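Narrative of accomplishments. A recurring question from our advisory board has been how the design workflow behaves on a single, concrete structure rather than in aggregate. To address it, we present the structure tokens for one chain from the evaluation set, followed by the sequence designed for it. No filtering or post-editing was applied between the two.
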């Protein structure tokens, strides 16, 4: 039975350590096979078990010191399997050992605070097993908290799953502490408490593993929905661009007919009829008029469309466009992702406001310093942004960030009185630069 308990205890140790490393360091190095990392993890635990057996007859202080040194060293070495720095590896190794010490101190404090009747005599194996497992589950709780804090920005798990992650280890601690030792089922079965400890340990591992998989499944499900929404969004934007192009072609075609009609009215001196016809033609042109004529279809169509929508919703809409279309470093598809999402977000933010003072300010510039600059600033309600699901609400902005990074650009977001997204993308192509590099 001791072998089974040792095995389960080691398994819990390995799982807790891996959980901590995954939560703090995130990504394993792609160049190292996963099975190599698992072997190293198991070897580090085997070394700790060997150390405990080797120094079992030494004083508790010396044994604890040697165990701590080995634990810190093995944790530090395991950090090198992850994408990290030496400085961070040292921090991770020391912080994990600190958590171990704190969990053992909490466990010791509990054993002193509770009445002696709660435990069997300290010399008994059941007491040793219970204290050992209790300290590890307390450590498990601390690691889960650390994991949740470090992955707060990327954590999209529903509240129910997060609560369940804590409920099982907390209840486990409670059961270990209050488990009465005088029940007949315990006295009649000398291995009852050992089985109980094994069950509690395995339950915590399986519960955490399954809940993490459930959380990943939930996030992937929402992510797939948002991917489909984004694809549909891009289709709509391209349909909008296509319609703008067709409208421009139709205007050119119609103007030719207008000229013939005007010419005919002048020949026949139908001036009254000509005046009415011109009024009708001007009204028709205004409906299909594209205000922006930079030569870039994305800018011209999107800015015109969103200005019309803003005007219909009493949103002040200002633009500062200084663009050389030949120097834009983005293709139309990626440019549509960036500008379309930013304009969509700014418009939705204004529409969700109760205030009468709503505004959208847009700046697009190809600068003399070979930078393509985009700034979209809008009014927003802090309550509205805080109440939205961060996974769903932020996906469009994540697409913008990924596209900007693809072009080696920089994106910054300032949330003060207004919400301002500023983007700078370098113009790298030599033929598009005003100040190309000179090579000797």
């Amino acid at each position: 039975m001791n072998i089974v308990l040792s095995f389960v205890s080691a398994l819990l140790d390995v799982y807790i350590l891996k959980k901590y490393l995954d939560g703090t360091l995130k990504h394993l190095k792609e160049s190292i096979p996963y099975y190599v990392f698992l072997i190293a993890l198991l070897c580090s635990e085997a070394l700790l078990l060997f150390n405990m057996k080797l120094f079992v007859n030494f004083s508790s202080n010396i044994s604890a010191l040697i165990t701590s040194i080995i634990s810190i060293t093995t944790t530090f070495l395991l950090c090198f399997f992850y994408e990290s720095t030496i400085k961070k590896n040292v921090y991770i190794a020391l912080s994990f050992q600190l958590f171990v010490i704190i969990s053992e101190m909490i466990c010791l404090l509990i054993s002193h605070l509770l009445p002696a009747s709660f435990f069997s005599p300290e010399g008994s194996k059941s007491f040793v097993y219970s204290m050992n497992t209790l300290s590890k589950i307390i450590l498990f709780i601390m690691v889960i908290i650390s994991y949740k804090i470090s992955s707060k920005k990327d954590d999209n798990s529903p509240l129910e799953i997060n609560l369940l992650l804590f409920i099982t280890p907390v209840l486990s601690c409670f059961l270990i502490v209050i488990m009465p030792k005088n029940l007949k089922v315990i006295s009649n079965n000398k291995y009852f408490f050992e089985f109980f400890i094994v069950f509690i340990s395995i339950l915590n591992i399986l519960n955490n593993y399954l809940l993490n998989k459930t959380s990943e499944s939930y996030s992937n499900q929402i992510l797939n929905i948002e991917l489909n929404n984004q694809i549909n969004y891009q289709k709509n934007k391209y349909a909008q661009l296509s319609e703008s192009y067709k409208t421009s072609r139709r205007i050119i075609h119609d103007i030719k007919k207008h000229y013939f009609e005007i010419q005919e009215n002048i020949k026949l001196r139908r001036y009254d009829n000509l005046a009415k016809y011109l009024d009708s033609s001007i009204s028709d042109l205004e409906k299909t008029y594209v205000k922006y004529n930079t030569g870039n279809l994305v800018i011209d169509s999107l800015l015109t469309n969103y200005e019309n929508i803003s005007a219909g919703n009493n949103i002040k809409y200002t633009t500062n466009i200084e663009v050389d279309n030949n120097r834009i470093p983005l293709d139309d598809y990626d440019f549509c992702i960036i500008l379309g999402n930013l304009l969509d977000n700014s418009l939705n933010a204004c529409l969700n406001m109760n205030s009468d003072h709503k505004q959208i300010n847009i700046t697009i510039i190809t600068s003399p310093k070979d930078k393509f600059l985009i700034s979209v600033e809008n009014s927003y309600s802090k309550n509205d942004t805080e109440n939205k699901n961060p996974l769903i609400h932020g996906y469009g902005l994540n697409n913008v960030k990924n596209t900007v990074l693809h072009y080696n650009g920089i994106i910054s977001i300032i949330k003060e009185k207004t919400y301002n997204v500023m983007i700078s993308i370098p113009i790298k192509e030599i033929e598009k630069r005003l100040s190309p590099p000179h090579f000797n």
